[in-house]
């Protein structure tokens, strides 16, 4: 996939895998920082000794919302930029499922398939991605989601056939 695409290309990419991100290591420092940012200090995330003793995970696991929040970095890492884009807006999620806990120290990556693209008004296109966050050496993914974003552009750049 090229690093840059045109608005004219978007509709033709529906159903295509647009990118697979690099691996991101989810270490204890990242988990602790996320716990501080969200005030979620549950022992399963921040106390390795207790988590090893009292859970079946053998140690701490990442917050599900930490894994979800990594989608922004994964997106930036691998998805092509739309040449005419002036601004990208996170519109939300239709569905998020946390499938497998991410053990601290694991590596994760995102896999993005364009599920839908709709032009809205004269200057926006809404894209919906089917996203899977894979855990290295695990059969089941960490999460699956349908993520919607808005791409804002100058109305003069809107393709005529949309």
Automatic annotation (TrEMBL):
UniProt domain MaoC-like: residue ranges: 14-132
InterPro entries to which the protein is assigned, alphabetical: HotDog_dom_sf, MaoC-like_dom, NodN-like
Coiled coil regions in record: none
Protein known as: MaoC family dehydratase
Annotated organism of origin: Pararhizobium mangrovi
Lineage: Bacteria, Pseudomonadati, Pseudomonadota, Alphaproteobacteria, Hyphomicrobiales
